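Quick entry, no commentary yet.
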Amino acid sequence: MNFADWQLPEIQCPVWPPPPAQLIFTGEETHIWRVSLNLPPFVLGKLHFNLTRRRDLALYAFAIGKPVGMDVEREQSSQNSEELIPRIASAREQAIWEILPDSVKPRAFLHLWTRKEALLKSAGTGFSLPPAQITVFTSSPEIGHNLMPDFDVSWKWVAFTPEAEYLAALTAPAVASLVWFDWRQELDQTTAGSIEI
């Protein structure tokens, strides 16, 4: 190979205007956001998002002004549940687990795990807060303050099946209005328009 003609690539020096009051995504542009990580929480912008994936399935959650967390698991991921429960379940959850019929334990474990991971992602702590310190086995969609110590927030859960053999959980302060999109299908004129945020 002859490297005599090789030159350094051109480097762009973009102008960085502040974000507009109404953000619009179109299929004709790519957004690059420059963000200072030294800013205090909720000064970083109003757009919150979360990503979760398993195998060839990815789920994205976006919300304006509301932190979101999401997790998705396959049904087979509950196979080691008996080994994991003592490490991830609170004392209250372990007591409930012991009285559950064996037939519902695989699905109960998926609810427990997806809720915990989604909640820890919403809170921004990840697993720096041990999952056994929070309680998510509850029949209510409300995530009360007593279920997650030291956090003065209240989220709600939504459980859903993104496709067969998967279970997912979403946590956010408000889940009254959810909009669903499937981006695996080829885009046509009806779906390739502007997405307003």
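second:
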Amino acid sequence: MNEETRINIMQDAPASVEFEQPQPVVEYASITERFVALAIDYGVIFLPLKAITWFICKLMGQSLEMWHAVVMAVAVNLIFVLYETIFSSGGRVTLGKNLVGIAVVKKDLSGPISWQRAFMRAIGYYVSAFLFFGGFVLALVDDRKRSLHDIFGGSVVVQMRERAGWETWAVHGLGALLLVLFVSSLYQSFGGRDWQNKYKVRQAQEFLHNIAILEEGHRIRYGYYTNNLVRLALLSGDPVQFQRDMNKVLSSGKENLVWIGVEGEIYKISAKARDKNKTPVYFTNKM
């Protein structure tokens, strides 16, 4: 190979070879991580301020008026919004997020969000809560785990440091526990326990109505009403299932689950529902 050929080969070769740099892997914060951080921030802001407002209310005593309470409630929430605005913008993080190891950044991951966006994001917390906390549920279905307030702020929440295995499990376990407690408190707040109790009372009433149907069947067959529950159970065709249903919906105790009083053509069936209050229920054919 002569010199000219070698020169041509070098001229045809690329001047340099560029290699693609590996893109950093972004880990979006899970809903449990975010809930732990929010719970910490809530405790830092709301608990001390609520204690202060309670102390002020005690000092004011009888002079306390409704507008005083409204002003204090608005002030507490404004402080929370200010806290979230300052510590979610400009590369800063709230105490809760710092402890958990997560941070708020722009949705394109180009850097921290502005204070204007952080303010809109803080307002988004209240919008999510107003929608029966449905705005927070979006994090369960969004591919980047964004809630409604993230959409308001044009942001995402990412992990800002690696955690040890035990720390990850601790955060997720604590977050799951707090979520369960939170959902349970909401359930109770919206009358969950009352709804359960009312349902159990209704079940007991329906069971007494079924006994009344058996009473009518007994009268048609034998010509009289009976106060013998065993006869009515046999008349049901499945006394074992009858006993199971009765134990399921009626309160147990030393006394009989069902009391039947018969006086000629009138009968009354009494029992107690299996709710927390053992509510008395009854059925009678007396008009």
